[in-house]
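name: query_chain
kind: protein
chains: 1
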Amino acid sequence: MGEVLGPGYWRGEEAILQAIGGAMAQTTKDRMLEAVRQLPADATVEQAMERLYFLAKVEEGIRQADAGRVADHDDVKRRVLG
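structure:
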């Protein structure tokens, strides 16, 4: 994740977010395969791993939000900024 990725790498992230929101019934494997399919043809293994990590973290956040484990924006700012 420390690597600077080429132009357009994050172009597909919006599509991934839309796919997650509308297709939670898909299997994890299906969502992973779709995320990898959206990578450019010359993508590296590291880029694929980063995309899958991103997907996992977004899904985790959705599960937490669905469970009501959320924080108010102002509360987070107070915690972070002191």
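note: Confidence is low (pLDDT under 50) at residues 1-9.
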